[in-house]
UniProtKB/TrEMBL annotation:
<dbReference type="InterPro" id="IPR036890">
    <property type="entry name" value="HATPase_C_sf"/>
</dbReference>
<comment type="similarity">
    <text>Belongs to the DNA mismatch repair MutL/HexB family.</text>
</comment>
<dbReference type="InterPro" id="IPR038973">
    <property type="entry name" value="MutL/Mlh/Pms-like"/>
</dbReference>
<dbReference type="GO" id="GO:0006298">
    <property type="term" value="P:mismatch repair"/>
</dbReference>
<dbReference type="InterPro" id="IPR002099">
    <property type="entry name" value="MutL/Mlh/PMS"/>
</dbReference>
<dbReference type="InterPro" id="IPR020568">
    <property type="entry name" value="Ribosomal_Su5_D2-typ_SF"/>
</dbReference>
<feature type="domain" description="DNA mismatch repair protein S5">
    <location>
        <begin position="206"/>
        <end position="318"/>
    </location>
</feature>
<dbReference type="GO" id="GO:0005524">
    <property type="term" value="F:ATP binding"/>
</dbReference>
<dbReference type="InterPro" id="IPR013507">
    <property type="entry name" value="DNA_mismatch_S5_2-like"/>
</dbReference>
<keyword id="KW-0234">DNA repair</keyword>
<dbReference type="Pfam" id="PF01119">
    <property type="entry name" value="DNA_mis_repair"/>
</dbReference>
<dbReference type="Pfam" id="PF13589">
    <property type="entry name" value="HATPase_c_3"/>
</dbReference>
<keyword id="KW-0227">DNA damage</keyword>
<keyword id="KW-0539">Nucleus</keyword>
<dbReference type="GO" id="GO:0140664">
    <property type="term" value="F:ATP-dependent DNA damage sensor activity"/>
</dbReference>
<dbReference type="InterPro" id="IPR014721">
    <property type="entry name" value="Ribsml_uS5_D2-typ_fold_subgr"/>
</dbReference>
<dbReference type="GO" id="GO:0016887">
    <property type="term" value="F:ATP hydrolysis activity"/>
</dbReference>
Length: 319
């Protein structure tokens, strides 16, 4: 009996975490989502064997964290075992990036908020290959995996004969896109202009309709209540922050997916803004509220624009 070399153990484990190119894409997208990204773009060459590149606009990775970024079992998402019970992120094992460095060439470019320039650094077998180099970067992180499975020749051969990982990747991204309406996704083959998946997020839609200055000053909001004696609802949306300047309130309100108006709700929000913000700019509000259908009377106005709601006061109060 011999104790296996650490690098052999790691390569075997890596082959399990990253079974095929699409598994690498899934891990990278989950990391981008965990980083709070609103835009995730994927480029793939040769079904992912030559190149997988995932770029996001998330919070980026701190310079101090780069040396251990790709070590096994390093994570920012978990510190005690108990944290697992309340974990909301998709990752927590700290294995994905490490695994990729054991079976491919990994290069990371990243910039964090408030930095003037980003850093680029490559990894091999869990460690940095050189000091991170300063470079120009746009907000977020770009991770590039080249020559996946270059050192697992059997795996590479089986995959080479089937170009189906590209369609698996497109399928995977389409599924993420359907679920994450607040994130825009795109996926294309390297060297192609046309994307095979391209979705826009709600924030992109607000940006293109109401302008960059509105979209820049929004915060995501959500609320819910599930107590029939008070109110039962789920609300999510975007609302302007203190930097937003406008003379008039814009309220885009959907209740149970119907475009409606609700004067009481609008008034209450305006009053809250006037009381909190010294210059009393009027807010921009996008809100989607889901209620039990029997709680909404859509029939109070001939054009169905104004609705009346059961427990309206409680609902407005809690929002
Ligand atoms: P895990 O997701 O389980 O923590 P990973 O190996 O996937 O492990 O990633 C390790 C760490 O690297 C993460 O915890 C996170 O802090 C950081 N990271 C990875 N990808 C990104 C990204 N796209 N943006 C910001 N941070 C990232
Ligand atoms: Mg992860």
């Amino acid at each position: 009996i011999r104790r296996l070399d650490e690098s052999v153990v790691n390569r075997i484990a890596a082959g399990e975490v990253i079974q095929r190119p699409v598994s690498a894409v899934k891990e990278l997208i989950e990391n981008s989502l965990d980083a709070g990204s609103t835009s995730i773009n994927v480029v793939v060459k040769d079904g992912g064997l030559k190149l997988i590149q995932v770029s996001d606009d998330g919070h980026g990775i701190r310079y101090e964290d780069l040396p251990i970024l790709c070590e096994r079992h390093t994570t920012s998402k978990l510190s005690t075992y108990e944290d697992l019970q309340t974990i909301k992120s998709m990752g927590f094992r700290g294995e994905a990036l490490a695994s990729m460095t054991y079976v491919g060439h990994v290069t990371v470019t990243t910039i964090t908020k408030g930095q003037l320039h980003g850093y680029r650094v490559s990894y091999k077998d869990g460690v940095m290959e050189q000091e991170p180099r300063p470079c120009a970067a746009v907000k977020g992180t770009q991770i590039m995996i080249e020559n996946l499975f270059y050192n697992l020749s059997a795996r590479r051969k089986t995959l080479q004969n089937s170009n189906d990982d590209y369609s698996k990747i497109v399928d995977l991204i389409s599924r993420f896109a359907v679920h994450h309406i607040n994130v825009s996704f795109s996926c294309r083959k390297h060297g192609m202009n046309r994307a095979d998946v391209h979705t826009v997020s709600r924030l992109d839609a607000i940006r293109s309709v109401y302008g960059i200055s509105v979209a820049r000053d929004l915060m995501e909001i959500s609320a819910s209540d599930d107590d029939p004696s008070r109110s039962v609802f789920k609300m999510e949306g975007f609302i302007s922050n203190a930097n937003h300047v406008a003379k008039k309130t814009t309220m885009v309100l959907f209740i149970n997916d119907r475009l409606v108006e609700c004067t009481a709700l609008k008034r209450t929000i305006e009053i809250a803004y006037a009381a909190t913000l010294p210059k009393a700019s009027k807010p921009f509000i996008y809100m989607s509220i889901i209620l039990p259908p029997e709680h909404v009377d859509v029939n109070v106005h001939p054009t169905k624009r104004e609705v009346s709601l059961l427990n309206q006061e409680n609902l407005v109060e809690s929002i």
